[in-house]
What does this fold into?
Amino acid sequence: MAASKAKITIWIAIIGALGVIGSTVLPRWLASDKKEPATETVNFSGAVVEEGSNSSVVQAEITIVGRNEHYYSEGNGNFRIQVKTDHDIRIRVNKAGYTPYERSYALPDENVIIVLQKQK
It folds into this structure.
């Protein structure tokens, strides 16, 4: 009887120790996969121009790849996008009659000149 009582005591100690270890390690392990959302808003701005003439490209559609956001260059080709992110972005620029443009940028980045080529 004393031997079975000792076994029960050992098992209770083991289960208790696993509970303490699990309650300490498990929350940290689960939290390590979670990324904090970006809290800082940074600017990405510049102008869209035509290759060769450097003429402003009006109403060029600017999208951030992987997001459902669309922006357009103004009448003078300028654009300004406020981005909430903590990493580089990849942008795509489209305008009828021009070859699509795609490139990655490190943020913040201002005074970017995006040069579009006319389609042949």
